[in-house]
Automatic annotation (TrEMBL):
Entry binding sites for FMN: 67-71, 91, 143, 176, 217, 245, 267, 296, 317-318
Chief place where the protein resides: membrane
Protein known as: Dihydroorotate dehydrogenase (quinone)
GO molecular function, one term: dihydroorotate dehydrogenase (quinone) activity
Description of how the protein assembles with itself and partners: Monomer.
Primary gene name: pyrD
Pathways involved: Pyrimidine metabolism; UMP biosynthesis via de novo pathway; orotate from (S)-dihydroorotate (quinone route): step 1/1
GO biological process, one term: 'de novo' pyrimidine nucleobase biosynthetic process
Amino acid sequence: MYKWFIRPLLFSFDPEKVHYFTTGLLKLILNTPLLSTLYKKHYQYESKKLHVKVCDILFKNPVGLAAGFDKNAEFYQEMSALGFGFIEIGTVTPKPQPGNPKKRLFRLKKDKALINRMGFNNNGVEAAVEALKHKGDIIIGGNIGKNKMTPNNKAVEDYKICFKALFDVVDYFVVNVSSPNTPDLRALQDKKPLLNILNCLQKINLSKAKPKPILLKIAPDLNDNQLFDILDIVEESQISGIIATNTTISRDNLKSKHQSEIGGLSGQPLKQRSTEVIQFLKANAKSDFPIIGVGGIHSASDAVEKFENGASLVQLYTGFVYEGPKLVKDIKKAYVNHHA
């Protein structure tokens, strides 16, 4: 139903505007008792076999919503009701910022992909903290970044502000230095500045009675030498794990008219590279650590491929946009069957 009737209708409108329309509509549906019951009956699937413990957190299932969909922690209740096992909010910055000029989100329909150059548009960390005060038992990841106007030599201060503010309302943290849409941000993936950020956050983290897992989100465009550096950084900083991967600046073998737009490419074209990065990290890591696989997951078999290559959890964004909420249910069923 989604792919044949709902998606064509939604895809006839501007992608950024329709995002807020659909999430608002979802809120309405899930707050209407009869519609909510029917919706959950159709899309939800739960089993104890889905429970998985990662970073000392017990996830009710291994399928999460990637950062970028719920930047301001406005829809996490609704996304949880759709069956996601965890929701990653953000990217959150210390101060509110509007992001890059519109139009900044593009569908590449022939490629089952999106290009975005949103630019960390969000309401700031204080708004996110307020929105998460009554999150209940929903597992929330806090994806944190720096404000556009903060120079790289002071970026660590932005990450520290977000970390301290969100500490009591999120279950894990993700350090985002890999978005291509904030000028010079990816330079922070270099070994020296990245170690400085992570070590500063770990110092705060380890001063707490119960430290939170810190994960690093990396770009798919890193070469092997850079990935070896990432592995060294994980060892030296003793962070908990990696999210592989963010969007790509590559434009190889695309067919759609928006392929030349500036920004990060997500969706099906990223599937192979994302899996290759997971494979590389697993094969070359000196010690075992969890990896969250994200990139190009448009089917249950795509998700199973990530699990088979070393991902402990997976996240969806573009695949969810193209395939609809049934994808979450399909992946969970495939996970149970795969682990039977």
